[in-house]
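hey m, so remember when u said the tokens were messed up on ur end? i reran from scratch. heres the input so u can diff it against urs
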Amino acid sequence: MFTDRGLSWPAFWCGGSILIYQFSKRIILTLSLLLGLPILAQDDSALPWNGDWIAEGTLFSIGVSVRNNKVIVEQIESLGFEWTSTNGKLADNLVTVQVEYAGVTGIILAELIDDNTALVSPQSCTPEFMVVCVLAKNQQVIFRKVQPQ
């Protein structure tokens, strides 16, 4: 039987596997820390999108949170409107979110004007013949960020 330093082959092989495993674990940990630093450095709470937003001149308000460039929109005060949304996408100062309401599906585009102001408009609305789509066409709404008290 093969021996090295007094260990039989199975014991030597297991010992080598443990050393390789520990070395690999250290490399993976180091790489994940190095590659993960930009992600860890991004403080989601510092992103200007995070927080509560209210449509100017109304009580309609939403909560927005951003995690890993995914935008989550939650109803706060929907004025009786029942709608759903999927996770939106963040690209620079633009957010797109798919919204469904009363048999209509639309893509909403929100542009961050400054840290407290967003300009929101429909990017698409289907089916186009629905009254909601006709009324929303070419409309824009300003949302203001609600300041914590």
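this time it looks ok to me. The helical segments are 9-41, 131-136. if urs says something different then somethings off w ur setup not the seq
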